[in-house]
């Protein structure tokens, strides 16, 4: 993990309240796994004492760039969105443990994402695709306005889209698509709101897979115990999302 | 410039130390900078046996501050001694053990055990954690109990005892006086103010524990007031804290009467903040006409003419 | 949307009122917007005779807040009745008189006189001013005295009495209980937290009074916690305040259990803030699923399952 | 007094740590007296709960601009200085009572300024000069690096410069120059640090004149009682600097 002032080179609104931002920085040369995140300082002075964790959605080592996508939610993300190309952002990263793409032997991967949980799966799909692994992506959004990266994902594998209201793709949830399609895969990888994570991991209970979870963070580096999740089999009974996660084996942790 | 400060049990290269609970057991920050730079390190609270703490969310952001309700999660004193302290033995920086408990017996047990470890140079007796039902805050708000637990811990501790006071009291000087009578070697203040944030969408308190402890720059004026008031009534050394983010803030605490200054929440915003403050401190001291840290301690009282033991 | 709230003595168009001491006697802000927009107005504290207050500087800026030590400067109750209240009679907005004193007799005298004036619809009994040696804060920290002064004022007041509580106490519910027993019609909280800033160049406390009262967004979590705690122990209506700057903050206080919400420090940053909040409130209420102000009051307790009378 | 988002049209460092800033706004059309001030919002969010009072140093009704000069002192002025041309600043103004230039019958005015107290005297000198009143200016600074507007003042009247260290003008204080020159004038006008104001008003005790004083402010409009100064002869015994001042008759108030 390093600490760097990343230079913003582009900023785009790519869906409703959803911003894509690309930075230039040495950090891109680190070995970054999909699922790892940046811990970003927001604003100036003491307006924001806590950094914001945002997943890495893409890395270009050649250009030395890192891309993130974030949703405008509260004050922090709204302030982040005001930063312009040329400005610098104070970042810690890559933080946490990502999806172990290099260690897993597999032929077919199922990626299941919901809303703003989709971005890290894009970087994951790229990495898996590069390794020649067949990728199926199931993405769920509230409605058409929220959808992003549809074309980009289609280039990397089989892409299924669900929206709550049916305004794009199929009407329903990602679990409806998984049920209907009955995919055949070696490992699943999921990221999204807790409700979706629970539904997916229950549905795929008999399969091997990984989930990425969110929690409010303090330090982001494992020192403050803000971000724990129960992990009954571990020695201490819990794991830290910022340091031991955010990516865990689906059966390793207990979702609240 | 001479940044040294000597306090009971603590021979510090400079007056800066991370505050308990904001620096874990040092390992994570050791990956960022050399812990030998620090004046001392206060580690996360230790209790008699492992505690899992409160549910999540455990932190919330507030204006110029944050709320936390970690709930004293820690692996218990034995595990800390076995798994955490050996790593810290590699550094030439005095370590302060933050000791918590629900009963006098628990405080005594933890203090006895941990004070015997050679890396531990002082105990910070945490009678002020607001985040657990049985977290010892009753000891921090009742002068009789405060005195009693201090005396009991003093009896078994091999190292000096700094009592960490709660700001959530009507008159902090009464508690300070009580722990002084109990034999405290020093005082540490302030712990967090109790506060709450309500989640508008969820229509309930945001923290799982509902109430949490407020820290960060927002609370600095309260902390400075308390350090100043206590400095007027006792000569016990004070480790001051609450909202420190810059070397100027450190000087403000020194002037108020603190001999050392702890940095908590700011580590989350700027993980290198302690090392940066140490680097900037000589310039700030000389800008304001001081030639050493010792020179500045308590100097905000020179013109004092009123007794402020009660505001 | 229906923003009305009805409290003892106060028939309010909306729950927003400026906090005492931050709006003078209304004249200055009347030059900026129509005071009829406001739900009510709390005027600056009145004492028995004129007070000149503390020396200057009287204010200091802090992170997300400010310190003040005005010291209850006011022309005295008779002058206020003669020179200030007539202007306010021109408005169709209930006026709350903030009553202060050093002795029970002074409180009683001021309350008796001012409560007879037709524009005064309620009294806010200020037993919590931290900025004067004899400012009544002893009444705000001692439950017996709090009860006594409340009962004495209730006896002479022609209008309902809201007691304004100090947050600088170990357990605010004890004081709330005491003033309820004394016959209070409502509670008003919080007054300022006591704090200090030290001027580095001057090497002494910046405020002439040394200690001042901390207000602004920095203190909001403390205020929300106290409103929430008190809502769990009594049904007395609460006027909540402390750090409000937006309509979202107002909703947070309503959810915590306040029935009306006062705005203090924010008036200095944004002189139009009260009118802006009133304008934004309907949208914020409906965004979070409420169809009126009454609908939101106390709704942050729905899931409450723990008694928090003591944190 | 009005409330307006003033648009910054220029920003210049004109002496050590001293910034000159010019705004465009309707406020310039108000009747603005020298000595009145702007009460400026600083930064965003709740980093600065108090506005900063800064004197008006020039008004151009034709161009509809207002100019201020300020010294970088603490966080607020440093943040102000970061605002760029094109940005908007939230201002209340014109605030307070200025020098009553139109009401005074006089032939010769003595203006005495110290440091960052000099800017309002520049606007005063302009207004007096326009009216055909003879103006003598005595300006005091710490040293050469701090001096500004020397040439501009010389165009409006007799200009005397003193610096503490003699690095520009005469070595010494403004009072030394007043003593040495023994000016003949009808009214004096002074603005500067409290020490200087006291020295000048003591020295000129037998003359008629005005002083402008500073104090930490809350509201800036007369509502909070933060900025009082003892005024023994007034009914209430004090005056509010933000509303009754900052300009007072020299004998009206008691300097602390
Ligand atoms: C490992 C991880 C990866 C994430 N990746 C992304 C991503 O790629 N894109 C994206 O849009 N969002 C992501 N999030 C969520 C993102 O961190 C929050 O949306 C963001 O912090 C909200 O900040 P705010 O100031 O806008 O909201 P506010 O609600 O005003 O924030 C207040 C506080 O709560 C915290 N907070 C609020 N919501 C969340 C949340 N869901 N998770 C964690 N903390 C939260 C904030 O960090 C801040 O401390 C991720 C979260 C985690 C833990
Ligand atoms: C009527 C009036 C006119 C002024 N005109 C000018 C001017 O034209 N140019 C100029 O450079 N300065 C002027 N000042 C002083 C200017 O207001 C302060 O230098 C400025 O507020 C300092 O802010 P800061 O954040 O940089 O300093 P900080 O010390 O960080 O400010 C902290 C707080 O103290 C207040 N404060 C600090 N110093 C002063 C002071 N001397 N007077 C009033 N409040 C102070 C600030 O407003 C703020 O609330 C004037 C002051 C007054 C009262
Ligand atoms: C996340 C967090 C955890 C804390 N844990 C402890 C603790 O275990 N023991 C303790 O005495 N204080 C604890 N504190 C309080 C701090 O040590 C410190 O007293 C307080 O935060 C004020 O300093 P600050 O404003 O610099 O953070 C904790 C504070 C935070 C923010
Ligand atoms: C400058 C100033 C003057 C105040 N004067 C009074 C007063 O006269 N009486 C009183 O009860 N409270 C007084 N207060 C306290 C406020 O009414 C309010 O309780 C407190 O400031 C918290 O609200 P806020 O954070 O919105 O300012 C004063 C506060 C300020 C900042
Ligand atoms: S955020 Fe501090 S331990 Fe995870
Ligand atoms: S600043 Fe509020 S009365 Fe002058």
Give an overview in words:
The complex is a heterotetramer, with two copies of chain A (256 residues) and two copies of chain B (311 residues). Chain A is of the alpha/beta class. Chain A has three domains: 2-95, Elongation Factor Tu (Ef-tu), domain 3; 108-214, Rossmann fold; 215-256, Dihydroorotate dehydrogenase B (pyrk subunit), domain 3 (Ribbon). Chain A is 17% helix and 34% strand. Chain A has five helices and 16 strands. Chain A has helices at 75-82, 119-130, 150-154, 174-181, 194-203, and strands at 2-15, 18-24, 37-40, 52-55, 58-60, 65-71, 88-95, 108-114, 134-141, 158-163, 170-171, 187-191, 209-212, 228-230, 238-240, 247-249. In chain A, the strands form three sheets. Chain A has a seven-stranded antiparallel β-sheet with strand order 4-3-7-1-2-6-5. Chain A is globular. The model of chain B is unreliable at 304-311 (pLDDT under 50). Chain B has 311 residues and is an alpha/beta fold. Chain B has eleven helices and 16 strands. In chain B, a hairpin with a 2-residue loop joins strand 5 (59-62) and strand 6. In chain B, the strands form four sheets. An eight-stranded parallel β-sheet of chain B has the order 3-16-15-10-9-8-7-4. Chain B has a four-stranded antiparallel β-sheet with strand order 5-6-14-11, with no helix packed on it. The radius of gyration of chain B is 18 Å and the shape is globular. Chain B has a single domain, classed as TIM Barrel. Classes of the chains: A alpha/beta (256), B alpha/beta (311). Chains B and C meet through strand 11, strand 13, strand 14, helix 7 and helix 8 of B and strand 11, strand 13, strand 14, helix 7 and helix 8 of C. The complex binds flavin-adenine dinucleotide (2 copies), flavin mononucleotide (2 copies) and FE2/S2 (inorganic) cluster (FES) (2 copies).
């Amino acid at each position: 993990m390093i600490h760097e002032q990343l230079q913003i080179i582009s900023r785009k609104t790519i869906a409703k309240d959803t911003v894509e931002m690309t930075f230039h920085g040495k950090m891109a040369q680190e070995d970054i796994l999909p699922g790892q995140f940046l811990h970003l300082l927001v604003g100036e002075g003491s307006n924001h004492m806590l950094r914001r964790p945002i997943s890495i959605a893409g890395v270009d080592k050649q250009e030395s760039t890192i891309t993130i996508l974030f949703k405008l939610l509260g004050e922090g993300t709204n302030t982040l969105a005001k930063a312009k190309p040329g400005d610098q952002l104070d970042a810690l990263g890559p933080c946490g443990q990502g999806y172990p793409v290099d260690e897993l032997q597999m032929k077919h991967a199922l990626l299941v994402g919901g809303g703003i949980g989709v971005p890290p799966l894009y970087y994951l799909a790229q990495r898996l695709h590069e390794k020649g692994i067949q990728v199926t992506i199931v993405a769920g959004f509230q409605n058409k306005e929220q959808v992003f990266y549809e074309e980009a994902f289609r280039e990397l594998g089989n892409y299924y889209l669900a929206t709550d209201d049916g305004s794009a793709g199929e009407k329903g949830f990602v679990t409806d698509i998984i049920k209907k399609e009955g995919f055949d895969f070696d490992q699943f990888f999921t990221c999204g709101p807790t409700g979706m994570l629970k539904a997916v991991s229950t549905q795929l209970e008999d399969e091997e897979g990984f989930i990425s979870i969110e929690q409010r963070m303090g330090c982001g580096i494992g020192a403050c115990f803000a971000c724990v999740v129960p992990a009954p089999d571990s020695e201490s009974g819990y794991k830290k999302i910022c340091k031991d996660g955010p990516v865990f084996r689906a059966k390793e942790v207990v979702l609240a | 410039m001479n940044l040294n400060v000597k306090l009971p049990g603590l021979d510090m290269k400079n007056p800066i130390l991370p505050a308990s609970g904001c620096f874990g057991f040092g390992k994570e920050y050791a990956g960022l900078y050399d812990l030998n730079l620090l004046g001392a390190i206060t580690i996360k609270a230790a209790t008699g046996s492992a505690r899992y703490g409160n549910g999540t969310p455990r932190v919330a952001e507030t204006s110029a501050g944050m709320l936390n309700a970690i709930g004293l999660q820690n692996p218990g004193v034995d595990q800390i001694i076995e798994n955490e302290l050996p790593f810290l033995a590699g550094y030439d920086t005095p370590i302060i053990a933050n000791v918590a408990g629900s009963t006098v017996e628990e405080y005594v047990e933890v203090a006895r055990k941990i004070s015997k470890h050679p890396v531990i140079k002082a105990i910070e007796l945490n009678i002020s954690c607001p985040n657990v039902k049985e977290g010892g805050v009753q000891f921090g708000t009742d002068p009789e109990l405060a005195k009693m637990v201090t005396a009991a811990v003093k009896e078994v501790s091999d190292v000096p005892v700094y009592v960490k006071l709660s700001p959530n009291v009507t008159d902090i000087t009464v508690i300070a006086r009580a722990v002084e009578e109990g034999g405290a070697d020093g005082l540490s203040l302030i712990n967090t103010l109790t506060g709450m944030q309500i989640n508008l969408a969820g229509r309930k308190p945001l923290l799982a524990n509902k109430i949490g402890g407020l820290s960060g720059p927002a609370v600095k004026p309260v902390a400075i007031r308390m350090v100043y008031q206590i400095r007027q009534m006792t000569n016990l050394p004070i480790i001051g804290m609450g909202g420190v983010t810059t070397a100027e803030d450190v000087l403000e605490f020194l002037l108020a009467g603190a001999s050392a200054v702890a940095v908590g929440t700011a580590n989350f915003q700027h993980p290198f903040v302690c090392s940066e403050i140490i680097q900037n401190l000589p310039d700030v001291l000389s800008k304001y006409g001081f030639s050493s840290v010792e020179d500045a301690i308590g100097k905000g009282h020179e013109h004092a003419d009123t007794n402020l033991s009660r505001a």
